[in-house]
Structures are given as structure tokens and as C-alpha cells.
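Self-study notes.
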Amino acid sequence: MSSAVGNTRLASAGSVLPEIAPDPRVAGRARWNGLLLLAASFLSVTGGAVTTVALTFGLLELKGQADAVGMVLASRAVPLILFLLLGGVIADRIDRRLLMIAADGLRATAQLLLGYLMLFGGATIPVMMSLAFIVGMGDALFVPSQSGLVPELLPQCQLQQLNARMGLVSSVAGIAGPVIGGILVKLAGSGLAIAVDGLTFVLSALILAQIRRPAAAHQSQSIGRDAIWTDLKLGFQEFLRRRWLTLMVGQAALFHLLVLGPLFILGPLMFKGAADGALRWSELLSAWAAGGLCGGVAALNMKPRYPLAYAAALFPLSAVIPASLALPLPHVVRLSAFGFGSACLAVFAVFWTTTLHTKIPSDVISRVSAFDAVVSLSLLPAGYVLAPALLAAVGINDSFWIGSAVCLACGGVLLSRDVRALQS
């Protein structure tokens, strides 16, 4: 969901994005900062993909029920709702790079401790939920900080390229991560795999520490109770006054509730009793990442006149992902469906992120991104909890059919002229 805009329009919108500097040293620093962000993203996504497999199957081994998986995954998602807005306010007031490093440190500590407990005993469901909550708090600080840091470090004409490359790096990491996770779970158990995720956060923090912010970067400001509420109000106003933004975010909220939430709970459950079930589910996640890689490559050179409408038209095609699980298809067909659907979502994501970076003023970008993430993810924990209820009410196949129907219905945002007419 995105669109790049020209410098004149950007200035008239009040955005304060840096222009290309003629000084080759400045340009070189921007390229180096971009590479550092890509490296940190690669490590974090690789570790996260390992944990997605390891934590899910570790919980199924511990409790053997989908509700245990849902409770722990929801414990990580809930802090995003509770603290993302505060994280956005903080990220618009202090050094975003330092906030990202602190978030990595918090997440590393929790994941390393969880890995230790799963390896040597003591990993009860309440403990796992508490540590997942801490990781979620780190996510709530990291997400708006990264969204604000990207346009702070690079000229606006390079933002789509960097966003596409970050998607590519994430996809490559996502291909390797689930496979590594499945192998580690099979050979060494879930605890070691989760500890590996903790180490990736450590390495990510070390890499982010090497980034040097330009002189024009926003300066740190004091944070008080009145300032927090004032900043939240301003950010909310910036969010509401863009109809295309509220429509697309509302669409994403339904997608998280009825598609992603049930998919990541019921999908592993579907493969639990199969031979090499963990590896088969890992292969589907890798196909998802491979599709994202292809979508990212395609997005590098896409220049549609109406990028948001183009992306919104691709989004309903992701319906093939849950539909492939509902049907008795060969594994290779399911792999293809996951890859194709993910490619559509990847193009969508690149345009969306670039839209935020180019249409939203830089001094409020972290807050607006936080509102975007809060609304988009607000129903994800409910989706995790809803999955067992769907399973009991309609069965696993119909649960996936519901998700497929929701994906198709999301194409309804194209009825809005604000979405169709947003030009590059």
C-alpha cells in the first residue's frame, strides 16, 4: 500500500524528508546506514522465524493443545496494543537508534532466558507468557522507532528501494529461518532454537550501534505527562484525517483477526500428527518467505501511477493461502499457493511502507506508524484466541475457508476513491 510522491508535493504536505546530498561522504554514509539496517533486519527476522517454529512445536509438546499456543503468542502480541502508542511518542522525541538498541537488548534477555528454561526445566506456561510479554514490549519500542529512522537516514528518492530491499532481506531470512528452526527442533529441541533467536537480537543491537545519524536528524526532547497526551492527540489527528490510511488499516485488522491469527495456530495443529510435521510446516513458512522474496524483487522496479490501488487489487489474491490448507492438495501445490499469496502481500507491504514514509510528516511518522500498527495488530491476539473456538465450532477446514473469504472481501477498499486515486 504505497505511493512515492514528488518533492514539491511532499513539501506542500509538510514533510521534512532529507534530500540527496551532493557531498559524496554524506551519500556514502547514507548507503552504509542502509546496509547496517539491512544486516540488523536479516538477523532479527532469521531468529524470529526460528522461534515461530520452535515455540509453536515446543508448546504443543508441553501441553499438546492449541489453546496453550494461542495464549503464549497472544502474550507477545498484547503489549503491541498496550505500548505501541507510547513507543511512537517516545520515538518521535528521542534518538530512535538508541531506542532500537534498547529494544533489542530487552528482547535478547527474555529470549535467552526462555531458551535456558526450555533446555533445563522451569518453562511453565505462566513463565513463557511473562517472557513473551517482555519480548512484546521490546517490539512495541522497536517498530515505531525503525519506521521513523528509515526516512531520517536516507533521501526520500531512495525510500522505496530500501523498503523493497528490506523486504527482500526479510524474505531471505524467512526462507532460512523456518528450516533452521525445524532442524534445530528435531535435533536439539525448542529451547536451543529460541536461544539462537536471543543471540540474533544481541548481534542486531551491535550492528545498530554502528549507525551514524545525519546532522539534520530530529533532536531529543523532554518527555512529560502533558507532552505525551498532546503528542498522542496530534498523532491521532494525523492518522484520522487520511481516509485511505484508515480504510487500509481497517482491512489489515480484519486480516489479522480472521486470517493470520487462526492460520498460525491451526496450521501447525493440522500437521502435528503427520510424519515430519514440523518440517512440512516449516517448508510452508519458507515458501511464504520465498514468495515475499519474489514480490520484493518485483516491487524494486514497479512504478504504477496509482500504487495504492494496484496494491489493494493484489491483496485479495492472498486468499489462496488459507484455501490451500482447506483443500486436500499435494504438498507442492500448497507450497506454490503460500509463495504466490506471499508475493502479493510483499508488493502490498513495500508500497504501504513507502506511502507512510513519503506522505506523513517526518516529525510525526513514528506516532502515525504506531497508530497504524496498533489498529492493524489489535485483533491479532483475538485471532490467536479465536482459533480454538473456530476449530470447535466449524472445524479446521471451514476455519481456513472463512480466512479465504475475508481476503477476497478486503478488495472492497477499492470502492473508495481515496484509495483508487492516490497517485505516485
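Second protein, same conventions, sequence then structure:
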Amino acid sequence: MTDFGNSNYEIIESRHPILRDYIGRHEARSLDLTYVDGQHPSVQLNGMQLSSTYAPELEASQQAATLPLTSEITLYGSGLGFLPQELLKRTDLEKLNIKIINLDLFIVTLTFRDQRDWLSDHRVQISLARDDEDILGPFFCSPTELLTTEPECCNIKERLESDINQRFTSRAFAKLKPELAERIKTNLSINAGGGLDQFFGSVPDGNVLLLGAGPSLTNNRGYITRFSEKKSGPIIAVDAATKFLYENRVVPDFVVCIDHNYLLDKLFFCDNPDVALVFSPQIRPEIINAWKGGRFVFMSPTGLLEQYITSEHVQLMSGGSVIHPAAELAVKLGAKNVQMSGVDFAFPAGKTHAGWKNGELYPVDLNATKDVEDVNGLRVPTNRNMVVYKVELERLMGRNPGVTFHNLSPIGAKIRNCAQNGGTLA
């Protein structure tokens, strides 16, 4: 097999000096690589093949067809170079970003085939994804390269998985349209107490306690109780956290509910006139009708709801979890500090929720196939949906640099863009 490493690397040296320096300093890791013979030889990494051995150009053409005709495209991983070559045939493509998500693999692929044509194209910019805060779009990332990212790209891998999973989730949710359309129309007409925006800016530069339903609520029980007793600020709770709060005599100011399947008998404080329900019009009408306090609808510019939005509607973000609109509500109240508990995005000690037995709220497979870094630098089991929710909350925090989010959980997932206080407020 011909080694093309020197000829390809000459282009790296002349056109991409920063990458050249990275490669020069890089301490290579051992890779589980297998060379695959065929009409077009390929490479297997950890048993997964980078490209077709029969028709890699056709495969690249089909991959390119999934990307829009835009002036800029980003590839996470370059494979064996077939997809970059295919995309550069587009005359309207002005910039092709190549983000390396496994430097060892990239170095190996330079030796495998002649890639000087795309490496030397002036439209190509190559950089390491590990240096990025978030991903660029539109993008393509092959499953093989996504599953074999280097450890330094953990953040970018989570964001790639989040965006890819969101696409499939949106398609699945669209199938619920006939069932939910009438419910949404009915629920939009129910809005006792005026608009939610009457509360916006009501706690300028103040504190808000944001409560998810994760197991760490139990760890922070004392802090939550003291916050409530001292009236240190508004308390925003997600629906599944209300049982824990009710049992500990902590009354939230706002309860946020978005799940179209959430049941009334799993929701507490319905009879308390001082607790406001902040709801998506997708929820069951019996919850809204049973609620004695204020009822405030909001919309999210995603999926099925988008078509019903008018200029009169208050909008809160949707990222797949109820924690997202709850967090944006805290921001819109005017908070300078948002203290979070129960926002774990994981299953520490094999628990799913505080106050509920595993499986009592939702069926959950605890045989997790994923894990994330926890607040102590260890690995904690989770699932793909939880990773998506974490990423979207991190993005919300990144869009609001004037608000400091404090993670009070001593056991959950580490959250970027967030101060870790380990159970106490600094």
C-alpha cells in the first residue's frame, strides 16, 4: 500500500500551520485499526468502517445530498476524504470547515490515500473541534467518526448527538399531530390571570431557585427549606418535583408543565391558589381545569406549536425537557443568580427522580449505555435524552452571560456555563 503521508502532510504544513503545530506536539494514542481490502480499500476503527470498499464516491454523493446548497458547510471528521472532495464540486460553496474530532485518526487517514486536491483547496479550513464551544451548521458527521471521537471532544460530541437526536425526535413527535391539535386549540383559550409576561422583570438582579426533579433534591433538602422559609426569592419547580416539595412543606411560586402525557394525580399544589401553573398548551386539559391558582400559557417556536404562535403569545424555549422553559422563566423574571437543584441529567446511585420510585413516573431503562462526567469528575450513568437536555440547557446559559447559574447538586452531571457550588451557594 502506498504511503501518501508525506505528500498530504506537505499541504498541511503550507496551508494549515496551526494544525501542523498541533500534530508536531501530539502524543499519539494507540488505535484499534484494521485495513480493509476491496476495490477501494478502507479502514476500520473499533470494528466500524470509515468508507465503502465498493463505491465510496457514490456513498459520498449520497451523504452530500443530505446537506443544503449553502455557501458554508462543516464536516466533523473528514473520513478518507471522499466527502470533502464531493462537496468541493459545488461552485456555490465558499467555505468548507473540516473539524477534526479524532486527531490520531486524521493523521492515519493522511497516509492512506492521496487527498492533496481537497487539502489544497482555498475554501477548506481545518481545525480541531476540541477548541470549540459549540458546533457549526449545517454539518455532517458520519456515525463511525461520531462514535470514535477523542476524549478532548466530549463537549462537541454531546452537541453533535444532541442535534442529530433532535431531528429524529421532531419527526417522531410530528406523528402526534392529529391527537394534539384540538387539545392545543382548546388549551390556548384558557388563561386565567392575564399573561405570564406580567412577572417578567419582577425580581431584578435577584435570586431564583430552580428545581428539577432529579435525585439531588434530596441532598439539598435543607438548603431548599431555608430558601423557602427566608423568602430569598421565587421558587420555580418542574411538575415532577412537586411531590418532593409537598412532602417537605415547601411551596413553589411557579410550577412548569409541558408533557402531553403527564397525569393530574402526579401533580401537587393544584388546590393552592398562591401557586401559579405555567404550562404548554400540549398538557392534559384536566390539569388546567383543576388548577386553583393562576394559569399562564406559553408557546415554544418548535415542532407542532410553532404554527399556532401569534404576537400575543409569551414564548419560552423548548429543548425537549421541562427544565428549559423553567430556566428561561427564571431569566425573564430578571434573576441575576439562578440556583439549581435536582437538575442532574443522570441517574446517580441508580435513582431517576426525587420523591418517586424508579418507574413510578415514567418507564426508564437504567441499563444505561451512556455516561457523562459528574460534578466530582467521575462518570455517572445517563441516557441519550438526558445528554440532549443538558446540552440545550448549557446553550441557554451561554446565551445569557449576565445571569449566573449555580449548580447545587453534589451528585449529578457536570453542567458547562454553570458555577458548581456542591450544595452551598458561594
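Instructor comment on the second fold: The chain has 15 helices and 17 strands.
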